[in-house]
Amino acid sequence: MRTERPDHLRNDTTGNDTTGDRSARRAVTVFPILVLAAGALGLLLPGSLTGWSESVPYLLGVVMFCMGITMTPEDFRGVVKRPWAVALGLVAHYVIMPGLGWAVAHLLDLPPQLAAGVILVGCAPSGTASNVVTYLARGDVALSVSVATVSTLVAPLVTPPLTLLLAGEYLPVDAGSMVADILKTVLAPVLAGLAVRLLAGRYVERALPALPWLSALTISVIVAVVVAGSADAIKSAAGLVFVAVVLHNGLGLALGYGAGRLGRLGEPASRAMAFEVGMQNSGLAASLATAHFSPLAALPAAVFSVWHNVSGAVTAAWLSRRGR
């Protein structure tokens, strides 16, 4: 879920209850509810979504196109202005979360399909709601946007080899095919959305308020399809997957914050680092798991889609109050 980022949302860390603040709170509150309802639909009525699995990459493309439309040249200038902070965020993201995914899979002795799914979640780029949650936590939104943008753009080069390295012991991984899929479902739609924003920005501005809800609904459909595809296995594996997701996400948030403090980035930037590391693009992970492994391997991504938004919102509220 990518949200519109007006200038005050990019930079305001005062905690004032602005219109953007209320809109952001509404988005991160409603989104988990939509995803949870979609998951319940897929679990209770799996037959109604039979044959939808092939549409998941296209649905993800819609989400990433919406993300591209919300980008502006300022997002890229932020990378140039603060290369050390962005580089630290990027390295922390692609080291901490993949490593934690591998460690959690071994710690819980997960079955191969679920282990590969957890690791794939860890190898995905930053979550598409991380910038909003950073804003609610009174963190450094500009840094959050920069890290999320770069982690998404480099995903075709980083996610497949990391998945091969860490998940290859569980299941065969076709890294070359995965690169092609990420290029088609992530990079191409993002660049297309950015081009539309640059060429028709005056008209796009009117549609920006609707984009978060379009993204939220689309991700909800992806979750419903993923859950429906493994509905029979969920009853026996859901508890184990939930434990894995909570550990993965919680440790990611804590270690991301710690990386920011260790790098002496300051409190607001450390809060941004927490969410850029701990929140993942679980929609991409679900799409790749469905295409390259199995619907069961996509289950961790579906659970992560709900949980990281809930934990992110709660953590942001706690950090915001502590900051006051």
Automatic annotation (TrEMBL):
Residues 1-11 have a biased composition (Basic and acidic residues). Residues 1-21 are annotated as: Disordered. The chain crosses the membrane at residues 28-49, 55-72, 84-108, 114-134, 141-158, 178-199, 211-231, 237-260. It is found in: Membrane. It comes from the Bacteria. Its main location: membrane. Keywords: Membrane, Transmembrane, Transmembrane helix. InterPro entries: BilAc:Na_symport/Acr3, Bilac:Na_transpt, Na+/solute_symporter_sf. It is a multi-pass membrane protein. One of its GO terms (cellular component) is membrane. This is Bile acid:sodium symporter. It comes from Streptomyces pactum. The lineage of its organism: Bacteria, Bacillati, Actinomycetota, Actinomycetes, Kitasatosporales.
